[in-house]
Specification:
With 466 residues, the chain is an alpha+beta fold. The protein has four domains: 59 residues, no CATH class; 111 residues, EIF_2_alpha (Alpha-Beta Plaits, 2-Layer Sandwich); 180 residues; 39 residues, no CATH class. Helices cover 71% and strands 8% of the residues. Strands 1, 4, 5, 6 and 7 form a five-stranded antiparallel sheet that branches. The longest helix has 93 residues.
């Protein structure tokens, strides 16, 4: 029996055994990739926290009121820009801060409110509408619903209280308060200035001061004349007293109204005449002459004392007139200074009165505008956001899909088999008869494994026969 010997150059086909051998040789790669993929899928799938999602809806009324005094609205941009702005408004810091404040109020004093993470807030526009879906993600379903409701309320409050009519009324009321405070402060300032400056009616006060000044100047003139006359009389009388001259003409001119002095002067003159007559007739030591001379000396002494008293009286009158002159001069100076300051006081008071009038006018205008804003708010709807639905019950967001979890390990086996054949193709080690034929380009007549198999088959009948 002839054995079939393969011809040279005939390629040997790979069998299923070869494929199984490759899988067996690369079993570590395939099983390792499968184990790593399975462990990763299991860790990521079962270690992820369960997240709950709660959502609510609001309707946005587009447009901006023309003013707080008019109910009309005006559109400035297109739908996409408006709704995009509203989405960012919900995620803005003022809205989230209001939501935190609402959560703190609901929690009560002494209790910690649930945390609010801006990254967990989700906002979506529902199709080509003005409806926004607002949602919140959290690991606790109760917290997710509570925070979502707080965000919805905060957004509605923000749009209703931070917009347009409400803001305009707040601005008007704030301006009214500021103007009223400025007005009260200015009125108090004017009153204090009037009291400090002793100003009541400037026109009447100016007229009164001018009249008083004219009267005092007239009195000053009269006093100056009297003072000059009294000073002259006092100096002349002092000179007469010091020199001892009692001439009748001078004496009569100075004291024309002094009857006593005139009488004393007359008697002195008469006595001098009598003494002179007696001396012509009698000797100087005659009793009649001595008596007449003594009488003359007595009359002269009386005249001297009377003149001294008159000098003192004249001095007193001069001092009195000088004091009156000083008083009038001081009064005139005070009046002149007061009249000089009246223009400045008048300017200050006029400026204060002007500012007070301006503040009163502004307060009146603000009050009228505030009344119009109240009428507009009461007669036209000012809400630009409507709450369509409250926060729904939280639903689980990341449910575990076991089919998808199983796809990962399954695909890892396929990838592992492909990598096994890829790396085996790169290996140049001769392991099979097929590899040997390809390496030496000669046919393989037999292999050790086949020889052992044939030998075992040959020996088995012999062992059975023996």
């Amino acid at each position: 029996m002839q054995s079939e010997i393969p011809t040279i150059g005939t390629a040997r086909r790979a069998t299923a055994r070869d494929f199984v051998a490759i899988l067996f040789r690369r079993r570590a790669l395939i099983l390792g990739l499968f184990a790593v993929t399975t462990a990763t899928v299991l860790i990521l799938g079962f270690s992820a926290k369960v997240i709950y999602f709660s959502a609510g809806r609001v309707l946005v009324k587009r447009g901006v009121p023309v003013s707080a005094l008019s109910p009309e609205r005006r559109l400035y941009s297109d739908w996409e820009e408006d709704m995009g702005s509203e989405v960012e408004t919900i995620k803005s810091t003022p809205v989230l801060d209001r939501a935190r404040a609402l959560l703190a109020e609901e929690a009560g004093q002494g209790r910690t409110p649930p945390p609010l993470s801006p990254a967990s807030v989700d906002v979506e526009v529902k199709g080509r509408t003005n409806v926004l879906a607002v949602g919140y993600l959290d690991a606790d379903p109760v917290v997710a619903k509570q925070v979502c409701e707080a965000v919805l309320r905060a957004y509605v409050d923000f749009k209703q209280n931070h917009g347009f009519v409400g803001d305009s009324r707040s601005y008007l009321e704030g301006e009214m308060d500021k103007v009223q405070k400025d007005l009260d402060r200015l009125v108090v300032m004017r009153r204090d200035y009037a009291e400090r400056s002793n100003v009541v009616d400037l026109d009447q006060q100016r007229l009164s001061d001018i009249t008083r000044l004219s009267t005092m100047r007239q009195q000053m003139t009269e006093t100056d004349a009297d003072l000059a006359e009294a000073t002259t009389s006092w100096k002349r009388l002092s000179t007469i007293t010091e020199q001892g001259t009692f001439d009748q003409p001078t004496f009569t001119v100075l004291f024309s109204e002094e009857t006593a002095l005139v009488e004393l002067k007359r008697r002195v003159v008469d006595q001098e005449l009598r003494v002179a007559t007696l001396r012509e007739k009698l000797r100087d030591d005659a009793p009649e002459v001595v008596a007449a001379a003594a009488t003359l000396d007595t009359l002269r002494g009386m005249m001297q004392r009377e003149l001294l008293s008159r000098v003192a009286a004249a001095r007193t009158r001069v001092d009195m007139l000088q004091a009156r002159h000083a008083s009038l001069q001081q009064g005139i100076s005070v009046l002149e200074q007061g009249l000089a300051t009246l223009p400045g006081k008048e300017f200050s008071l006029d400026d204060m009165d002007h500012r007070i009038d301006l503040l009163k006018t502004r307060l009146k205008d603000l009050s009228e505008s505030n009344d119009k804003a109240r009428i507009t708010e009461g007669t036209s709807p000012s809400d630009n956001v409507v709450l369509l639905s409250h926060a729904s019950d939280a639903k689980q967001q990341n449910t575990r899909d076991y089919v998808r979890l199983a796809l990962g390990p399954a695909f890892s086996i396929v990838v592992g088999i492909g990598l096994a054949f890829f790396f085996d193709g790169l290996d140049l080690t001769v392991r099979t008869a097929h590899h040997a034929e390809e390496a030496i380009d000669l046919p393989v007549l037999a292999t050790i494994a086949e020889r052992r198999t044939r030998r075992r088959r040959t020996l088995e009948p012999e062992r059975a026969a023996s």
